[in-house]
TrEMBL record:
<protein>
    <recommendedName>
        <fullName>Aldehyde dehydrogenase domain-containing protein</fullName>
    </recommendedName>
</protein>
<comment type="similarity">
    <text>Belongs to the aldehyde dehydrogenase family.</text>
</comment>
<dbReference type="InterPro" id="IPR015590">
    <property type="entry name" value="Aldehyde_DH_dom"/>
</dbReference>
<keyword id="KW-0520">NAD</keyword>
<dbReference type="GO" id="GO:0004029">
    <property type="term" value="F:aldehyde dehydrogenase (NAD+) activity"/>
</dbReference>
<feature type="active site">
    <location>
        <position position="268"/>
    </location>
</feature>
<dbReference type="GO" id="GO:0019752">
    <property type="term" value="P:carboxylic acid metabolic process"/>
</dbReference>
<dbReference type="InterPro" id="IPR016160">
    <property type="entry name" value="Ald_DH_CS_CYS"/>
</dbReference>
<feature type="domain" description="Aldehyde dehydrogenase">
    <location>
        <begin position="29"/>
        <end position="491"/>
    </location>
</feature>
<dbReference type="GO" id="GO:0005739">
    <property type="term" value="C:mitochondrion"/>
</dbReference>
<dbReference type="InterPro" id="IPR016163">
    <property type="entry name" value="Ald_DH_C"/>
</dbReference>
<dbReference type="InterPro" id="IPR029510">
    <property type="entry name" value="Ald_DH_CS_GLU"/>
</dbReference>
<dbReference type="InterPro" id="IPR016162">
    <property type="entry name" value="Ald_DH_N"/>
</dbReference>
<keyword id="KW-0560">Oxidoreductase</keyword>
<dbReference type="Pfam" id="PF00171">
    <property type="entry name" value="Aldedh"/>
</dbReference>
<dbReference type="InterPro" id="IPR016161">
    <property type="entry name" value="Ald_DH/histidinol_DH"/>
</dbReference>
Amino acid sequence: MFSSAVAAEEPITPPVQVEYTQLLIGGKYVDSASGKTFPTLDPRTGEVIAHVAEGDAEDINRAVSAARKAFDDGPWPRMTAYERSRILYRFADLVEKHNDELAALETWDNGKPYEQASLAEIPMFVRLMRYYAGWADKIHGLVVPADGPHHVQVLHEPIGVAGQIIPWNFPLLMYAWKVGPALACGNTVVLKTAEQTPLSALLVSKLFLEAGLPAGVLNVISGYGPTAGAALASHMDVDKLAFTGSTVTGQAVLNLASKSNLKPVTLELGGKSPFIICEDADVDQAVELAHFALFFNQGQCCCAGSRTFVHERIYDEFLEKAKARAMKRVVGDPFKKGVEQGPQIDLEQFNKIMGYIKSGVDSGATLELGGERIGTKGYYIQPTIFSNTKDSMPIATDEIFGPVQTVFKFKDLNEVIQRANASRYGLAAGVFTKNIDTANTLSRALRVGTVWVNCFDVFDAAIPFGGYKMSGVGREKGIQSLSNYLQVKAVVQHLRNPAWL
């Protein structure tokens, strides 16, 4: 039924060794204060890859102290912006040189296809770092006029110690989205990695040190959310917090920040993105793009086009072709050439997805395809498609974060706009049409942070990304991301007998 490469094959041995499993604090790799470690697992098998230092509140304290010292007394914020940019450029060059090694480690720890990591994600990481390196010496303030004899400067200053918490679905890309702008603006960083995927951040940070990043400017703590994550969010000496993850956890992070020192928080959270296919669409092209919009990265993408709205005129044709495309999807060992879909990240996520599939069946939706586990080892799930889904069903309202596509029928633009916007989320949307008026109408009416027209998942470095409603606060990437890491200060000086105002 499915083009599956899982079968009974032995997992391919990853072409990389795990070298860094300790915490990075003050420019050195060290054990956790407690001496505890935790296992990080291979999603292909559920077996242990390595044991990683388990950071907790004491380690967060050590890391924040190192970051504070590096900001208050160290060279980084006092360094010329040009020299900071040179270090970021050198780092990007080193990452590019180690592309294959980093991609292999990312695939091993996360389960994403190696070709995706090596050909798309690591090159994008490099592009992002070069983008922020280019910004480092172009951040400047203003001189503004005043109604009187005053010289007024508006300064943009680094905010200080930035706490950052990243997710497991795109570990290195989220590292770049967070660390790049923070360092370009002259801040220091304490980064808490996801407990499911700690390995690639520890390795890539070693390359940062090789590039000349001063000790303490970047500190990396692996550990769990309720311990290390909560300690970072509530720390009184952290000046700014950035989080990417689920909406529920984002609410907890925001609460901890507000109860501590009221540090500003940016949040990039969950989504339930509509993908709207209009009646004038080329059905074959629409099927392929909708397939990519949902199934990319095993469906573990916050902006996945998981609500596929199809005009009633082409609905039946689309559904049959969407099923045929999903049946051809190659699921298997992500290190194998040609594999499109690897395993889900872990058993917890696997069980969550399977629970939603059961919920869809129990609620009366039609399971058109898939819905079962593939193989007996690892966390592989068949590409799954539902039809006849009501907008109120959990599979239509909740973020499943897995390879589950729900296909809906609509009659006209007013109807689909109302239904698409009837969500607590507002992260992204896709529109597929040949009509420019239709594209303009939808792109302005949809209450989301990103609208992709006749494309999807375009994440260029300069394009801002973030959500409306419960999909987050603030924007990542682009020039907008710099404001997250800058304070604005007005300096007003009295002028005596000025020649001009």
